[in-house]
Structures are given as structure tokens and as C-alpha cells.
């Protein structure tokens, strides 16, 4: 049968990345408490294409996923990306897995359990070297210090999200990155709260008022102190409750030492 993709192309234009995106696919990731967690990822996979090939073989991307049977761990990412690169005979391969991750949380006073959702991204690239970035997106509560200072009755608060991206020298659990982010907001969010819990988190946020700049700097300090991380990027976005815009702050740093 004629292999049209492998036919030579006369336009002599190499393509940086070609592949598939927005593929929903079941995966298995490591879970600190339960060992494994089954979830569904939005998957993108791509390779570089030399100038003399007309197209890539799209079906082979899915075949690579199937060979790993959905097991997507940080230690596996280099093997998956390298296997994709070799299978497609490419100089470079790139894979992104974006998925919801659930952690069992307990309300602060009543200790009632419930699941909280966090969004996680594994991004990997392999050419002559390997690069892997893990991103967690963590919702938190923030309370405005200025509003608390100038108001006679309470202060405005809002939901914010902290996006932490990290390159690791040694393994760091998803849960650890989530915990770092949650410590740096005014208060964490919970799926299930009774009245005693609501009182606790409301007062916790009031006593821990923070601008987006404060959240960003506190998160950076925690990441700077983590010896297993070599590089990080933090972005904090606040969905303002009394303004018709969002507020944000971000920074990117290499960790010394």
C-alpha cells in the first residue's frame, strides 16, 4: 500500500513540530497516599519533521501511548518521549499531559473528608537532551490587606490560583507542590465545610491578608528552599471580587546550589 506520508517533499521546509493535540486519554499517575491514581488527560504529542518528508505518521502517536498502557509517571516521561522520537525517526519529540488530580482533604475543624481537585501538567521534550517541567495549578483564597486596613466591616476576599512550574533534580510529589502553594495563600479551599469549618477558614484568611505579590514572594521563598528543584516559575492570578479585572504577578528563577 502506498505510503504517502513518507513521500519526498520538494519545498525543502522542515517543520518544527507536527502531531496531535486535544486527545482525551485515560492515564495512571503516582499518588502519594494511594500509590496510583486513575485519571483522564488531555494529551498533545509532536515531533520535528525533516524537510524531505511530506508528513508524519499520526497513528504512531497513539501506538506509543498504548505501548506504555497509560502509565504516565515522572520517571517514565523520558522513556515515553524518547520512544516517540525514535518511532517517528525525529530529531525532537514533545509530549504534554494535562489532567485533573484529586487529593483527599479534611475540613480544618470537623475533619470531614472530601476530594479537592487540582490541575497538573507534565511537559516533556527530548532531543539530544531531556527536559521535563511539572506544573500544578492550585486554587486558594486571598484577602486584601488594603481592604482590611481601611474598612470598618470586614475586607474583600477572592479566589485566586497559584501556578507552580518546576524542573526537578530529584523526585517531588504532586502533593508536595500543592502543599507549598496552599501554605502561601491567605487560606486553602475545601470542597466540604460545615459551619465550624467556615468560621475557621474565614478567620484564617482575615488574619493572613495577602496581595498577589505577597503570595508570589512567599511561594518563591518556599521553592528557593527546596533542594530538589533546579528551576521554577510561579504565576498568581486573583479573580478580583470588587474589580472588573483580574490581578496577577509572576516570576521565573533558577535555584542556586
Q: What features would you describe in this structure?
A:
This protein is of the alpha+beta class. It has two domains: 101 residues, Roll (Urate Oxidase); 129 residues, Urate Oxidase (Roll). Helices cover 24% and strands 41% of the residues. Strands 1, 2, 3, 4, 5, 6, 7, 8 and 9 form a nine-stranded antiparallel sheet that branches. Helix 1 packs antiparallel against helix 2 and helix 4 packs across helix 6. The longest helix has 13 residues. The protein is elongated, with a radius of gyration of 22 Å.
Write the topology of this structure.
Layout: E1 15-31, E2 35-49, H1 59-67, H2 77-87, E3 93-106, E4 113-126, E5 130-143, H3 145-150, E6 157-168, H4 174-184, E7 187-188, H5 195-206, H6 212-224, E8 229-238, E9 247-254
Antiparallel strand pairs: 1-2, 2-3, 3-4, 4-5, 5-6, 5-7, 6-8, 8-9
